[in-house]
Every structure is written in structure tokens, then in C-alpha cells.
Amino acid sequence: MNNYSEKGLLPAGLADMLPPTASAEASYTEALMKVFTANGYLRVKPPLIEFEEHLLEGAGAALSSKMFRVMDPVSHRMMGIRTDITLQVARVATTRMKQDPRPLRLSYAGQVLRVHGSQLRPERQFTQAGVELIGASEIAADAELILLASEALNALNIPDLSVDLTLPTLVPAICEELGVEEETAAKARLALDQKDAAVLDDFGDTLSPILMALLKAAGPAADAMRQLRALNLPGRAAEQIAELDRLVTLLTEASPDLVITIDPGEFRGFEYQTGVSFTLFARNVRGELGRGGRYHLIDGEPATGFTLFMDSIMRAAPRSKGPKRLYLPFGTSMETGAQYRAEGWITVRGLAKAASDSEEAKRLGCSHVVNSGDVTEVA
Amino acid sequence: MNNYSEKGLLPAGLADMLPPTASAEASYTEALMKVFTANGYLRVKPPLIEFEEHLLEGAGAALSSKMFRVMDPVSHRMMGIRTDITLQVARVATTRMKQDPRPLRLSYAGQVLRVHGSQLRPERQFTQAGVELIGASEIAADAELILLASEALNALNIPDLSVDLTLPTLVPAICEELGVEEETAAKARLALDQKDAAVLDDFGDTLSPILMALLKAAGPAADAMRQLRALNLPGRAAEQIAELDRLVTLLTEASPDLVITIDPGEFRGFEYQTGVSFTLFARNVRGELGRGGRYHLIDGEPATGFTLFMDSIMRAAPRSKGPKRLYLPFGTSMETGAQYRAEGWITVRGLAKAASDSEEAKRLGCSHVVNSGDVTEVA
């Protein structure tokens, strides 16, 4: 019989979440979901595993190497453990909820698993919570999502929130309008994403100045928009800038305190996005709190959504102290216990007569004890 | 590209939980957890997968054939997807929380997966919520758990609850006291479990009458205890009956309305239990709501716990209607929306000007619409 004493009790990147963290994660997740629900988002819960090909549709293909697979002995087909929930929710929207009126607002929370952690995120199991808004192409939909994410994170009292906007489709549109060939366009996009000013100079007299200007424009929204407007980009690129401008206006009007930055050249992690994409941060907190943006469902329907990462949120959200623990000496009646719980106490019942009730209370981590019908603080 | 139109979208026994079921399951689970927390149970969250040998310890071995396995490319060891959470919580108690004061009260909620469903439960993914009370051998601990389960289920307004008590160790103790050989004892135990009166007659003049009496005793607690006391069983068997008697007294005193039945011969599903075990039912609801009982941790520490099955609980709990949906016409301010949400409405925002706000409200499943600053019911 294994006595658990060996090293490496759990596989790397997998952990037991202990008190009080497990409880905090659950309350924070439900607090976020409550905000989504109050804004009309309907909760769905896809299964943890399903046929692998459905998990690898479209954007899912990028996560193929990160997916655990298991054989289904019932169907003799391969199943995958989900690495992300967004794609599953998109599948639900295009199948069982295809007849539901649009725009369709859906929310979800749950666990995902990955075969490998990353250097920044060594964990292999995450909790995600998020929403998808399906069938709306209006920029008001993008605004609704960013404001919703902000409302949800504010509900957890996370200080110093900011949202960083990007247009992963902007550089491709510029290059197409300018007739830049694809290979060069891809290099330009990467150089800008990596903020590699030296390389940005190598794209000729027309493209290089634009790329440099985009690099320079990155920063607080008002200033960034001024620079982007002044660029006078051609055709579809100009339309994208105008759309971004409308979004910034909507956000600023609706939530004047929201800190908005723009990084027009960022695209990594947003490869499959088709419009404005965004990342949520809290100052001085490692890692993104969440990210989202526009994409198309496999049947072509427009969609936008975001996912919040509970591990970052746990680092960002101030912990509440929670109710106090009250020791109920052995023999305390059920009614008495129920009354104290109704008043907001956590009650801890003595299972046998203790030599000293207050010592026993202290030993069990209780700050208070019931003493001849009164609540006394433990010295 | 797969268009999801094929038959068998999801593997058998796995399902997308849709609105409003997914939301109800989450609220019910958190309502149960809230009761556990208020009674001093600390939440833990073990990972969904871990090294398979840890999931197969002790009672886990019985679930070996039901466990999905995946290879861990990091450690090159086999991991299993958990089929149950109890064993993981027991592992946490004997390792990372070994130094925490006893009795240790832990709670958990989460998903488990099984390779095969059963005829009664074709599902392969379940939600479980439960508690473990570790390091207490007093019968008051058994009473605390049964009363806690009842308090939690009452919090969901589940009507007509009952708890069925059994002593899986009773027939083995009787047989040992009477010197019955093991093979015969196992047959006797099975015949009694199956309530096979014809077979019960075949165990000789001493054992058969006792088995028949145990069979006859099954039923409402007061009457069952009278019959069991009258049996005058030998030694350790009598001690077990006396312990059961104390438990019934404790439960009846604490919760006079709780319906208690006793089935002294039932043992299937409780093979690894070391004392009083119990099953929770709601009248006219298919399947157990939960089950629990005494066992030993692998280091010998006494423990008792129970697991609630959210699928049965969803069938048993009355659904609440939930808040009403209010349509906010395009252009409604953020503050207005926030105010209505603070009053308890679910708000659904228009993303573009609608031809008729009340028609649009109706189309989106809203019962009310904001009309010139007032809330109007949609005809």
C-alpha cells in the first residue's frame, strides 16, 4: 500500500487547492457569474471531455498539442479533455441553441486541462469563467463585453483595472491595401508585435513609416487614437481605425474612469480574431486577468466573447476575512447552532466533552465560544 | 471542416447542460457548500487528474475499471481522471493537512468522470458535493454528518427526505462471533443484502433465525431498533446494535421530523465502510440523493463523510423561477442598467435601434421593457 510519502505526490503543474484558497476561488467565480447572469447571459455547461475533432475546430487546432486524449471504449473514437471552453460554447450556439433568438448571450465557468504548462503559467489545470455574445456585429456588442468584464472585476473590488485594445486585423489590412506580398506582410506583423524598431525600418518607404507610427501610437487611448486618426490609412484599414474610435468613445462615455490603452500592433494570442480584441490587466498583478475579442463561428455567424483566468484574478482580488468561527461545546442544541449560523457565524460543534471549552475552541481555530448561553471571545 | 451536423455530436453519457439547468445546478451546489461552510467545513479542491495509483488506494481499487487514464508526458507516469473525490480529500487530510487539528472538517464540490455509465445512471460525468469529518470516532460525528446532510438538503427545500441507516459490518461480526466460516458468512451476507428469504433458511439453526430476524427488522427506525435490541446478539454484534441505537436517539432528539429507516442487512456499495453507513432519499425521486458512512484513512485514522449526487438532487429540488428579464432599449445609459440590476432585474441591452422595443423585448425573452424611464410589462 502506497503511503503517499514519496516525492512528487502530484504530477507537476497540478495541485490541491487548500483552505481558504479553494473557497475564495469558488466565491469569486460565482460572483463573476452573478454579474454575467444579471446582464442577461445564460449559463451553459459543456462536458469536460468530448470527441477530439470537435475540440480542434478552427481556433482549437492551435491547442492540439496541449490536449490530453483518451479513447472512448463506447464509440471507439478518440476524445479530448478540453483545453478551453470558448469553442465548446460556440459549438452549443451553432447546434442545440441554433434556433434561439440572436443576439444570444451565454456564460460559462469550469476547469480546463493542458498537457504542458507554459513558463509564465506552469499550472496544467485552470479555472475559466467567461461569456460569448453571438450573432451581433455591432461595435456596441464589443463595448458591452468590455464594460461587462469591467463590471464583473469591479464586483470583486480588484483595484487599478485597465483594458488594452488591439486590432489584430489592422496590419494585414494595411498590407493588403498597399499590395504588400504575404510573406513580407507576415514579417512586418511579427516585427511590430515584437516591437522591434530596428527591423521595422526594413519594409520600404511606404510601409515602414506606417509601422513605426503604429509602434509609436501604442499607449493611453486618447493619445493613441489621435495618432492613429492622423495616419490617414487606406480603405479597410481606415475603416478599422474608425470602428476602434467609435468603441473608445462608447467606452469612455459609459465608464469615464476605465483606463484604456491601445496597442495597435499586438496580435499574438489573437491569431483567430476578426476584429477588436482586448486584454484585461490589474496594475502590479502578474499575468492577464482575461482576454477576448471578435471571431466567427464555423457557420459564419459573428461572435465576440471573453475569458477570465481565475488564477490571475485570485492574485488581484483583495481577500475578505470571512465570518468568525464559533465553538459550540458538546451538547449544544441543534436550534442554538442554527440560530448562530443564521446570525452569520460559522459554528464548530464539539463531539465530546472537552476539559476546557475555550482551550478546545482555540485548538480548533475558533475565535469565540458559547459559554452558558453567551458568546465569549477566546482569550 | 466539421459542421457538427453528424449524428452523435457528443459521446454517449456526456451532455451539454443548457439554460436554465446549468445555472440551477451551480446555484444548488453553492447553496449546499454554504451550509457545509457555515458548519465549519473547510473547502478543498483536488485536481481533476492525478497519478493513477493514488486514485486506486483502498476503496478506489473498486473503481479501477471505471477510470479514464492518460499518460503524463512530463513524468512518463500514468494518470487517472478521478471517478470520485472522497479518496482525494482523504489523501489531502493525510498529507498536506496532516498537522491540522483533529477533528478536521473538509468539504468539496466538483466533477468526476467514469468510463462507463450504469443502467440506472447512464451519465459518465457527474457533479458531486460532500464533506469528510476526519479523526473523530464518536457516534456524535456520525450524527453530525447525517444532520448536516439533512440541513443542506432542506436548504434546497427538497420535500419528504429520508435517511436509511445500515451496518455493513453487522453480519460479518455476527458470523465471526458464531464461528461461521468465511465463505458461508459471505454467502449469508449476500443473501440478506438481496433479501432472498428462501436462501436465508439454509444457514442452520443458529444463523438462519438471526438472518431472518434482520430481514424482518428492516423498516422505520423505532420499530426496527425494538426488534434489533430483542435479538440479544453476541459480543461485538451487540455493541454495534447499541451504537446504532445511540445514533438513532441522537438523531431523533436533534431532528424529530427526520424520517429514519434501518436496513441492517444492506452492504453493497458500502464494502469499504467500517461502521454506520447511510443513504439519503427523497420520496418519489429516482436514485439516491447521496450516501455516506465510516471508513479508515490509509494511516488508520477514523473518518466519516458523505457525498451528494447533484443529478438526483436536481430531480428532487423544486425550481425557483428566478428574476425577470428587462429589455433596455438601445442607448439606455449604463447607470440606468446598473440601477435595475441592483433592484434585482436581469437586464438585456439592445445593441441597435429596434423597430419596436416591446416586440424586441418579447423576441429576446424579456417580460418587461424600459419605456420613457418606466418599466412596462410586455403584452
From TrEMBL, chains A, B:
<comment type="subunit">
    <text>Homodimer.</text>
</comment>
<keyword id="KW-0963">Cytoplasm</keyword>
<dbReference type="InterPro" id="IPR045864">
    <property type="entry name" value="aa-tRNA-synth_II/BPL/LPL"/>
</dbReference>
<keyword id="KW-0368">Histidine biosynthesis</keyword>
<comment type="function">
    <text>Required for the first step of histidine biosynthesis. May allow the feedback regulation of ATP phosphoribosyltransferase activity by histidine.</text>
</comment>
<dbReference type="Pfam" id="PF13393">
    <property type="entry name" value="tRNA-synt_His"/>
</dbReference>
<comment type="similarity">
    <text>Belongs to the class-II aminoacyl-tRNA synthetase family. HisZ subfamily.</text>
</comment>
<keyword id="KW-0328">Glycosyltransferase</keyword>
<dbReference type="InterPro" id="IPR004517">
    <property type="entry name" value="HisZ"/>
</dbReference>
<dbReference type="InterPro" id="IPR004516">
    <property type="entry name" value="HisRS/HisZ"/>
</dbReference>
<protein>
    <recommendedName>
        <fullName>ATP phosphoribosyltransferase regulatory subunit</fullName>
    </recommendedName>
</protein>
<dbReference type="InterPro" id="IPR041715">
    <property type="entry name" value="HisRS-like_core"/>
</dbReference>
<comment type="pathway">
    <text>Amino-acid biosynthesis; L-histidine biosynthesis; L-histidine from 5-phospho-alpha-D-ribose 1-diphosphate: step 1/9.</text>
</comment>
<comment type="subunit">
    <text>Heteromultimer composed of HisG and HisZ subunits.</text>
</comment>
<keyword id="KW-0028">Amino-acid biosynthesis</keyword>
<dbReference type="GO" id="GO:0016757">
    <property type="term" value="F:glycosyltransferase activity"/>
</dbReference>
<dbReference type="InterPro" id="IPR006195">
    <property type="entry name" value="aa-tRNA-synth_II"/>
</dbReference>
<feature type="domain" description="Aminoacyl-transfer RNA synthetases class-II family profile">
    <location>
        <begin position="31"/>
        <end position="292"/>
    </location>
</feature>
<keyword id="KW-0808">Transferase</keyword>
